């Protein structure tokens, strides 16, 4: 039994009352699903601006009778009184709510600041007054900014390249300040390009993996900004769930630091990523084998290369990524393919035999 499994067993034997902000979003909904499966009581908080009720319906459909342990509050981080009510009686907070997009922040910096910074300070104040034991919050690899060293280590950061990056860096500063002055312990997790089921492929600010997966499944073109040589450390959602639970449950004496990278410690170019996705989609849509990328100018604020060191998380939290890019991608593509087929959105291109096999896998996972 590894350390993560030990933490899960401790949670089963001693259930907590946990607040998850951004619960209707991609990462928040996976955290809620995992924790409900472990018998925890979950208060979900979301304004549904970027999250969706479909994510809530999906996660609750997968947890069986444990769905009765879930309560949803539709509220906004900028409403302090709503957060004050939500934090009453809470042991732990997993803070995932944010406007998480570099391009969006370049266009709407004030919205990014108010949601990501003002909202976070509201949460810190409310949690401290409610006696919350610990907050685990989503930071971002974007805080490394123009720091050129590879891999990225937590002790060396550069200048932010976007309002989104600046907002996450300010959150880390506030968290450290509250630890010193208010006696509220927070742990920040710097996510590196998280992907997986339920990630929204739609809209102008969607992430590259869900957009390319859906476009290839639908037989639509895929666009890359730049020449495709930019590289990222892509991290499957189950690794992120693991990191959150480890950070939430780590003994105080084990936490020598306040922020941790969450990634796989491997780098993939966007051209390589497209090849991996195309190969995976071909099992469901054979004509995807011939798909090619269209190229557009690089976007302002995007970092060229990003690779994480996960040594600190491994040593202090016991973090061990369970899925690499290809392992996570197979699960991700299968989820999107099944969803498109059930909605009748993929036309005649999807292979029925592959979808039937994926349906059996999904069904087995839901039962487990």
Written overview of the protein:
The chain has 13 helices and 13 strands. The protein is of the alpha/beta class. The strands form four sheets. It has a seven-stranded parallel beta sheet, sandwiched between helices. It has a two-stranded parallel ribbon with strand order 7-10. A two-stranded parallel ribbon has the order 8-13. Helix 1 (3-13) crosses helix 9, helix 2 (26-37) runs parallel beside helix 3 and helix 6 runs parallel beside helix 7 (163-181). It is globular. Mean pLDDT is 91; it is low at 359-368.
Strand order of the largest sheet: 3-2-1-4-5-6-11
Order of helices and strands: HEHEHEHEHHEHEEHEEEHEEHEHHH
**Using DSSP, what is the number of strands?**
13
Computed structural class: alpha/beta
| Mean of all residue-level pLDDT scores | 91
**Beta-strand percent range:** 5-15%
| Shape label | globular
Major sheet summary line? 7 strands, parallel
Euclidean distance between termini CA atoms:
18 Å
- Poorly predicted runs are 359-368
- Counting H and I runs of at least 4 residues, what is the number of helices? 13
Helix content: 40-55%
Radius of gyration: 20 Å
List keywords for this structure.
368 residues, alpha/beta, seven-stranded parallel β-sheet, two-stranded parallel sheet, 13 helices, 13 strands, 15% strand
Write the layout of secondary structure elements.
Layout: H1 3-13, E1 17-21, H2 26-37, E2 41-46, H3 53-61, E3 70-74, H4 80-86, E4 92-95, H5 102-107, H6 109-130, E5 134-140, H7 163-181, E6 185-191, E7 194-195, H8 208-218, E8 222-225, E9 231-232, E10 235-236, H9 237-249, E11 259-262, E12 268-269, H10 270-282, E13 293-296, H11 311-317, H12 325-343, H13 352-367
Parallel strand pairs: 1-2, 1-4, 2-3, 4-5, 5-6, 6-11, 7-10, 8-13
Antiparallel strand pairs: 9-12
Helix pairs in contact: 1-9, 2-3, 2-9, 4-6, 6-7, 8-10, 8-12, 10-12, 12-13
